[in-house]
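Write out this protein's structure.
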Amino acid sequence: MVALVEQLVVFLNVIAILKKNPELSLYQIPTDMKLRNMWLHLIGRASFKPNKCHRVCSKHFVGGKKTCLHNVPTVVQKVLLPTPTKPRTTFKCVNRRDPNEDRCIINEQAEQLTSSRNKISKLEHVVETLEQKNQEYEEEISKLKEK
């Protein structure tokens, strides 16, 4: 979604702007408190504290320049700013996985599988050993019974 925001563009890097657009004029924010407050209200930025380096572009004045009659910037450009969106909570979105996360899971599962195979191999060896001992004991028992 896009929100429509009205605000004046305030420049700090005056020299670079004028080099790119020599037809522009940049005006310092007035020191007269009444006029300054009007300009700051029209700039429309919360907690904006301009210093002597801040400038307002001539595009914001009627006729493209500041005059005695039009010494307040009134031409306000419409600036399109994206509005923050809430994260989606659809079933697909919630259950969607990051491919890197999937790789990690696959690597973990492969390690677990290798570990399980090693354990199975060791246990099979233990079972073989026990079966051999069991066979030996059964033979001894049968010999003892014959006596």
